[in-house]
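Morning run. Coffee first, then this:
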Amino acid sequence: MDGTHDTERYETVIIGGGQAGLATGYELARLGRSFVILEADQRLGDTWRRRWDSLHLFTPARHDGLPGWRFPARAWSFPSKDQMADYLEAYAARLGLPVRTGTRVDRVTGDGDGGYLVSAAGRRFQADNVVVATGAYQVPTVHGFASRLDPGIVQLHSSDYRRPSQLRDGGVLVVGAGNSGAEIAIEAAAAHRVWLSGNDVGNVPFRIQGLASRLLLYRLVLRVLFHRVMTVRTPMGRKMRARLASRGTPLIRLRPGEITAAGVERVGRVAGVRDGLPVLEDGRVLEVANVVWSTGFHHDFSWIDLPGVGDGEPAHARGVVDGQPGLYLVGLHFLYAMSSAMIHGVGRDAAYIARHIAARVPGARPAARAEEPAVA
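And here it is:
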């Protein structure tokens, strides 16, 4: 596809049709910009649909809407993962966003004239700007010694776990004690002996039952502390960003006591393998039939063939990539604030990037909203 007639031209190409990509599309549409959203899956929301069956969002519906359309559910209900998936699909249709599904991006390069070429599913797109909105959950991470476990042990990453029926009879070791690991461990404990391995990630010190505590948690903690106080601009925010990188996100819905009350045994880190079985750092060998790796994800930007961009997170300032004018990131953990990868926080980052794109074009009209909108 070398001829120019085979190349589609847009001011901006957004890669990824999840909440970050759709929110960015909404903000660009408000500014009258030319763009297209490329989504690898055949259907919007499929990333959510592939997650485990019992998953519900950690935040109530009143904080789960994207800019332009609130989440259509009772304000204090906790939407299921399928409700979230359907919302994203309906959001794009309701707002008329130009989305191409089934269009997996293979490569991004420079076009030799200050812009970019995006190759995807046999098509080619030329753009002045590229917004990478592939999200924080890209390549599953497992420990290097996983391959040395007995081949008879069922091993699943949390991204592949759907329901307890995938597990064999016998014990279950869940590696990673964050929100996902804790919820999977509790679910598995109904029919299995379960060990939950990993460092204590702490928990948000408020219960979510009762109107007063809900207001305290979701207004003060999520909308003020996570969204405004803990940013890359504040010492507290920078300290929290480093903590999250080393320890993970604190428990939000659960408290540590609820994990043990469900019959889950908390144990230390997994240090290796002995005779095909996992060994803890204290030397204890666990005779398990299943291991669920809730050990997170790592970035893979190797398909972006540009200087300074590789497997890790490129250097950037609030999503504006260093040294690559017109290249942007949205939807990553702590892109700007602790709320950046949360649904209620991604809209602010998307608006910032859209304004930055508009400002690159002489005569572009300003955004309709202020840079720091009031907390709803």
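Residues 211-229 form the longest helix (19 residues). Good start to the day.
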